Amino acid sequence: MNESEKRPVGPHTYRDYVPTMPILKWPCDELTKVAEEFDFQNDEYDVEFIAAELMSNLDASEAGVGLAATQLGIRRRVIAVKQYLGRRGRGQGIINTVLVNPLIEEYTKQVAHAEEGCLSLPGVYATVARPAGISVSYVDAVTREVHEFSCKGPLARVIQHEIDHLDGKMFFNRLDQDAANRVLRKYFSPEDAAVDVENKIAAQKEKRRRSKRRRR
Ligand SMILES: [Zn+2]
To answer: Mean pLDDT: which of 47-56, 57-66, 88-97, 162-171 is highest?
Structure first.
């Protein structure tokens, strides 16, 4: 192995790579499948192929912060996450990190609530409760070294969301039935959701009108 082959999979290795596996959209049976561990000894997939597909797809999506191999129809436990290095929002300092066979070793008891979206469910968002922090181990795609790190905030959320994909779970599976139905209704019939918004605006207008009348 020469020096360049030893370099970990990173932006330099896929800069000119054009993804061949499009991101699957809900509803899709593949998105409900549990992925198998990647087998470094004799997997039918090349790990660098999976990494390049994940990273190039993720890079091409403005809004995406993470992607799981199952979202490309590759039933292997591999995810990519955007990691912000240094100050956020500057464009630079973002790297796509590939985690092979990621495993959550520990969760914090503290729970955090934040809005999530999904590249397989474009256009809809919902607040999801998850452990605020995790400790995760994974295998580096190229060096095959096992790493472990702790994180909290958005990165901990993204990693949990992506590992859920490896277990065939969408983010709405983390919501109660009513909230999940709302998400899916919005997704399948954005017109209905728009009518909902119209109705709410109309109801609020009516309230305002009444309260004005009372004040007179
Ligand atoms: Zn997702």
So the answer is: 162-171
Choosing from 162, 191, 198, 206, the catalytic residue is 162
Structure-model confidence comparison of residues 27 and 87, the more confident one: 27
Q: How far is the CA of 160 from the centre of ligand 1 (A)?
A: 10
- Residue 2, pLDDT above cutoff 50: no
Distances (CA, A) of 164 to 103, 139, 142, 173, 204: 11, 18, 24, 9, 38
Q: What are the domain boundaries of the chain?
A: 3-117+127-175, 176-216
CATH T-level fold of 3-117+127-175: Peptide Deformylase (3.90.45)
> Nearest Cα to 30, choosing from 57, 77, 70, 80?
70
Residue 116 annotated to the active site: no
Distance from Cα 1 to the centre of ligand 1, integer Å = 35
Question: Ligand 1 center to residue 161 CA distance, Å?
Answer: 6
Q: Is the pLDDT of residue 11 over 60?
A: no
